[in-house]
Every structure is written in structure tokens, then in C-alpha cells.
Amino acid sequence: MLKILIVDDEAVVRHGIALGIDWAQEGCAVVAEAANGAEGIEAVHRYHPNLIITDVRMPHMDGLEMMKQLRAEGCEAHAIILTAYSDFEYARSAIQFGAVDYLLKPFENEDLIASVRKVLELDRRQASVGTDPLKALPKGDKSRIVMQAMSYIAEHYADQGINISTIAEAVSVSEGHLSHAFKKETSYTVNNYLTGYRVHQAIRLLKDPAIRVYEVAEQVGYRDVAYFCSIFKKNTGISPSEYQDHWHAPVNGF
């Protein structure tokens, strides 16, 4: 369930968003409303929403200042920006703070729903590769051979020469035996699991704003940066640099 916080100084807008859409049908729930950025920050601390739908210009604290402070605190909630026509260019800078989309007021409910679905799709993609594959499967469902293979991958994923042959040799079985057991017990091929594990580690590394994409590629076992970028985008839907930009928006200015 996607938890939504609505931040807008116009009560009619807040209530219209909260009550005018069947959020449950979209797999969402509005957990709180706030009338300005300061109240929005308090609501984030209390309710921990996954998505913040916020106006730009509000009294006491505007939407961008709110997002700036939240990002500085480490808040990773998605954001959708609402703006009047005169604020449009101003709202573009909100993308720096991880905004998934921005909508011009007045907007149709269908437009907002489409934006929220972008967030749901982004979460789905991240969940498919952002969870450690080794932890995602119950230990009781894995044989000794598969567990050993997974442990070997966890220790050697950064080795450029790792492949099904070296993994099978390490766990003392044939490639065919390992391939069959691994697929049967995890639904992954060995190569797909290795790729997913590398992408998971790359996501972890990209959360460091100082690291370069080529350094990430090397640290997860790819000599060819372009190939790494292709693999990353195929698995997540976005490039490594786009992922890094999404989580590391500037917090010292617009």
C-alpha cells in the first residue's frame, strides 16, 4: 500500500485530492494532509509516507524548501509537484529533489492518477532488483548446493571471471546439476541471479553521491562501463546516472 501525504495551502485542493479519487483501487491510501511545508515535514516524521503530493508556493514554507529539508534528512519519499502556470519554471527545479512528476493547476484526476502510477511502477522496478536476492528466498526452501552457490556469488560477484562454470566448480557439482537445481529452487537461472545480485550491489553503491559510474561498474564485476549501464537500465528501467541523480539532488540551493 502506497502511503500518500498531501501538502497544499488550499483546503479545497487537499480535500479534492483525498476524497475525489478511489485511492484504494490504485493500491494507495492518503495518510495525512498539511497546509504548508512546515506542517508537511511534521507529517512526514509522524506518518512516513511513500509519496508526497505538494504545491509549490505556500505560506510559512514552500514545497521546494520542504523537499530540500526532507532530502537533507535522508527522506527518500517520492514527490509529485502541483503548480500554477506562473510557477511552472520554478517547479522544474523540484526534479532536483526527486520529484517524479509535476502537474499544472487545474488538473484532472486522471492526470494525477497517471502520475501516481508512475510512482507505483518505479517502486515495482526497484523492488524487483533492490532487494538482496539471497535474503529474498526463505532458507528452508534452498538446498545445500544452492545455498553454497548463492554464498559464493555473494563473496565473488565483483570478480569479472565469475560464471556458472566457476560457481559449479566451487560447490563441487556439474554445471548441469547446478543449473537445474538453481532454476528449480529459486526460479532464477544462475546467470540471472548473478546479474540481479550485481545490480543490487550497484544500487547500494550509487547511494554514495561521490562515486562515479565507472567505479561502480568495476566494483560489481564489469570492465565495460557501457555494458554495465545497459544491464542496469534493462533491470531497473533507468540508467545508473539517472538513479544516482534521483537520490542525490542538491540540498544547498536550487
UniProtKB/TrEMBL annotation:
Coiled coil: none annotated. One of its GO terms (biological process) is phosphorelay signal transduction system. It is found in: Cytoplasm. InterPro entries: CheY-like_superfamily, Homeodomain-like_sf, HptR, HTH_AraC, HTH_AraC-typ_CS, Sig_transdc_resp-reg_receiver, Tscrpt_reg_AraC-type_HTH. CDD domains: REC_YesN-like. Keywords: Cytoplasm, DNA-binding, Phosphoprotein, Transcription, Transcription regulation, Two-component regulatory system. Residues 147-246 form the HTH araC/xylS-type domain. SUPFAM superfamilies: CheY-like, Homeodomain-like. Residues 3-120 form the Response regulatory domain. The modification 4-aspartylphosphate is found at D55. GO terms for molecular function: DNA-binding transcription factor activity; sequence-specific DNA binding. GO terms for cellular component: cytoplasm. May play the central regulatory role in sporulation. It may be an element of the effector pathway responsible for the activation of sporulation genes in response to nutritional stress. Spo0A may act in concert with spo0H (a sigma factor) to control the expression of some genes that are critical to the sporulation process. This is Stage 0 sporulation protein A homolog. It comes from [Clostridium] aminophilum.
